[in-house]
Amino acid sequence: MASTLSMLLCISVLLLGLCSAEDPFAFYDFEVSYITASPLGVEQQVIAVNGKFPGPVINVTTNYNVVVNVKNKLDEELLMHWSGVQQRKSSWQDGVLGTNCPIPAKWNWTYQFQVKDQIGSFFYFPSLNFQRAAGGYGGFTINNRVIIPIPFDTPDGDITILIGDWYTRNHTALRKSLEDGKELGMPDGVLINGKGPYRYNNSLVPDGIDYETITVHPGKTYRIRVSNVGISTSLNFRIQSHNLLLAESEGSYTVQQNYTSLDIHVGQSYSFLLTTDQNASSDYYIVASARFENETLWQRVTGVAILKYTNSKGKAHGPLPDPPNDEYDKTFSMNQARSIRWNVTASGARPNPQGSFRYGSINVTELYVLRNKPPIKINGKQRTTLNEISFSNPKTPIRLADQFKLKGVYKLDFPTKPLTGSPKMDTSVINGTYRGFMEIILQNNHTKVQTYHLSGYAFFVVGMDYGEWTENSRGTYNKWDGIARSTIQVYPGAWTAILISLDNVGVWNLRTENLDSWYRGQETYIRVVNPEATNKTELQMPDNALFCGALQKMQKPQDVTSLATSIKGNTSKLSFTVLLLLLISTMLSV
Ligand SMILES: *[C@@H]1O[C@H](CO)[C@@H](O)[C@H](O)[C@H]1NC(C)=O
Ligand SMILES: *[C@@H]1O[C@H](CO)[C@@H](O)[C@H](O)[C@H]1NC(C)=O
Ligand SMILES: *[C@@H]1O[C@H](CO)[C@@H](O)[C@H](O)[C@H]1NC(C)=O
Ligand SMILES: *[C@@H]1O[C@H](CO)[C@@H](O)[C@H](O)[C@H]1NC(C)=O
Ligand SMILES: *[C@@H]1O[C@H](CO)[C@@H](O)[C@H](O)[C@H]1NC(C)=O
Ligand SMILES: *[C@@H]1O[C@H](CO)[C@@H](O)[C@H](O)[C@H]1NC(C)=O
Ligand SMILES: *[C@@H]1O[C@H](CO)[C@@H](O)[C@H](O)[C@H]1NC(C)=O
Ligand SMILES: *[C@@H]1O[C@H](CO)[C@@H](O)[C@H](O)[C@H]1NC(C)=O
Ligand SMILES: *[C@@H]1O[C@H](CO)[C@@H](O)[C@H](O)[C@H]1NC(C)=O
Ligand SMILES: *[C@@H]1O[C@H](CO)[C@@H](O)[C@H](O)[C@H]1NC(C)=O
Ligand SMILES: *[C@@H]1O[C@H](CO)[C@@H](O)[C@H](O)[C@H]1NC(C)=O
Ligand SMILES: *[C@@H]1O[C@H](CO)[C@@H](O)[C@H](O)[C@H]1NC(C)=O
């Protein structure tokens, strides 16, 4: 019965030209539009998905084929990026300017990708035009297949918490500040799941702010997935009177350890196991507070949500639980980061233990030392750099230029170490060797923590320390249980070393997650090409690929008017498909 249904489903999907494997499909319709909201008590324009801020959680299982029809109802171009989802063999679906043409305003575009051999907690967000500062984000969960045991008891519930700094200015106003060469200044507060703080202090928090409440049953264990989806502020996350048992980080199971609080830098995701073992004499505060800011100057609201036991005897009250007492000493934070280890015996997405990939015994084939500096004027504009290069996005995406053998779109000459010359704008890309093993040193010469993200891969975090990296620093590397993840912080005046096994063909974005610095050019791409002519290591360009730049002429117009009605007409069909899928997966799992 189940197989007949899934065959039928697969045939109908085949007719649409989408069926690529026998693995299940999950369909989503994303209508991205502006709404008016007042998370901090000031009315402003916010980006919503299907009318919700944050958007819906994408909740799938290893090897699912995920189909997301994104309808751009904004007044500007859009690309949705699936941060941390690796896009095996298909940078075509990564949703950044180096690989995709933007979806024009009022158009729609359907992403389709398989979450091959992946598990973990991630999030999606709009990658263009500073839009993430206005929202448009949501959680992205990839569950283990039932046949692969997770390294802890099945939790009693699964909760997504998105935290992030926030400005009451809209994203176009923030963008304008940056264009005018101004800094953004301190954010106006911190949001938790798109909502402002619980009124923990009557003089600081105005009345009438809507806050997040998370309801739990006593004596249970919940998996809490927390991502920092904010603009540029590192946040300290903690729950009053509760331990956070760290269990997973961006797709790797960690050695399980209790933390009273954990620093979560911009773009990072973690799963904690929360045991509801307190007496519920009151509700408890869930806190996300700005890290490394001068509190005297900050005077801004902290992110505060409420953890409510079903048997709670009253409201949360009194002072918030203390943050780490080290405002001007980042050693505590760095030591905490170093304490996050890979559980080498746990299975990840596949049955074999995570640690069966012995990254510590592989020889490095190429080394890049990338140095970030504070913003500097280039051609009259305030810009940020890596190795003195401020990335200038090409009009034609790099991957598309390769496909059509266009010359002169980009250069494969990214410097392997910091240059001494004067900084410049350039479309300079890292030439990655397919099946090579790359070592990247991220050296932060700025006064602010930067987090770096690489698309297409999970890398191994093998070391971090203060000062300048030298070859001798390799002696301190963790060659055994360094965590594999996709987003890592680099403290000011310090370095972080990562190792990457370049087995995923495509063009992959390497960027700072700090939105202001990214907007000003602190990014590049790693291009990985298989020299052997084969269709096995990279998927074909999708049939619906958009064209722009030098290929603009190939783009067929989209009938925007008929679309509005066809999307409406198709919703019920799509929901039916989702229901069908749910039915099938339930039947299969019995
Ligand atoms: C996500 O999907 C899994 C597997 O289908 C299910 O067990 C779980 O309850 C879902 N989580 C949420 C938060 O809906
Ligand atoms: C736009 O949406 C329509 C209706 O859902 C769909 O048939 C079409 O394939 C989509 N277009 C693209 C380019 O994804
Ligand atoms: C590591 O994973 C194994 C295998 O699933 C599990 O039994 C063990 O408890 C985990 N160890 C820690 C310290 O988390
Ligand atoms: C965004 O902010 C700018 C500057 O405050 C304002 O002029 C503009 O109207 C705002 N846009 C919207 C759509 O709210
Ligand atoms: C509320 O915040 C103000 C301003 O930071 C501070 O002076 C005051 O002590 C706080 N009140 C309480 C009860 O914590
Ligand atoms: C973590 O703390 C909880 C209590 O909140 C305790 O039950 C558990 O044993 C601790 N686990 C570890 C690995 O320390
Ligand atoms: C509940 O626990 C708190 C400490 O977390 C303690 O101060 C309080 O006395 C306890 N209340 C009851 C009724 O046991
Ligand atoms: C924090 O800012 C205040 C106000 O500018 C200043 O007086 C104080 O020295 C600062 N604290 C530190 C430790 O820099
Ligand atoms: C790594 O390099 C060393 C020294 O050059 C060499 O002896 C060793 O065989 C290499 N290991 C691998 C796995 O290639
Ligand atoms: C890029 O690297 C490959 C080896 O992986 C090499 O063959 C090729 O010449 C390099 N291209 C450039 C432009 O340096
Ligand atoms: C930045 O680099 C300069 C020159 O090497 C050095 O003097 C300075 O201390 C560095 N600053 C940071 C924050 O790393
Ligand atoms: C890859 O697939 C395309 C389209 O099916 C085909 O034209 C091409 O010859 C294939 N290339 C190889 C090396 O098999």
Any overview of this molecule?
The protein is mostly beta strands and 590 residues long. It folds into two domains: 27-326 and 333-338, Immunoglobulin-like (Sandwich), CATH 2.60.40; 356-529, Immunoglobulin-like. It is built from seven helices and 32 strands. The chain has a six-stranded mixed sheet, with no helix packed on it. The chain has a six-stranded mixed sheet with strand order 21-20-25-30-27-28, with no helix packed on it. Helix 5 links the parallel strand 22 (389-391) and strand 23. The protein starts with a helix and ends with a helix. It binds 2-acetamido-2-deoxy-beta-D-glucopyranose (12 copies). One 2-acetamido-2-deoxy-beta-D-glucopyranose is lined by residues 445, 447, 492-493.
Helices and strands in order:
Elements: H1 2-15, E1 25-37, E2 44-49, E3 58-61, E4 65-72, E5 80-83, E6 108-114, E7 120-126, E8 138-143, E9 157-166, H2 171-179, E10 189-192, E11 213-216, E12 221-228, E13 235-239, E14 244-249, E15 252-259, E16 262-264, E17 269-275, E18 284-290, H3 295-298, E19 303-309, H4 331-338, E20 366-378, E21 381-386, E22 389-391, H5 398-403, E23 424-426, E24 430-433, E25 437-444, E26 450-454, E27 459-466, E28 484-485, E29 487-490, E30 494-501, E31 506-512, H6 515-519, E32 523-529, H7 560-589
Parallel strand pairs: 1-4, 3-8, 9-12, 11-19, 20-25, 22-23, 24-32
Antiparallel strand pairs: 1-2, 4-6, 5-7, 7-8, 9-10, 12-17, 13-16, 13-18, 14-15, 14-17, 18-19, 20-21, 25-30, 26-29, 26-31, 27-28, 27-30, 31-32
Helix pairs in contact: 1-7
This protein binds 2-acetamido-2-deoxy-beta-D-glucopyranose (12 copies).
Residues 59, 143, 158 line the site of one 2-acetamido-2-deoxy-beta-D-glucopyranose.
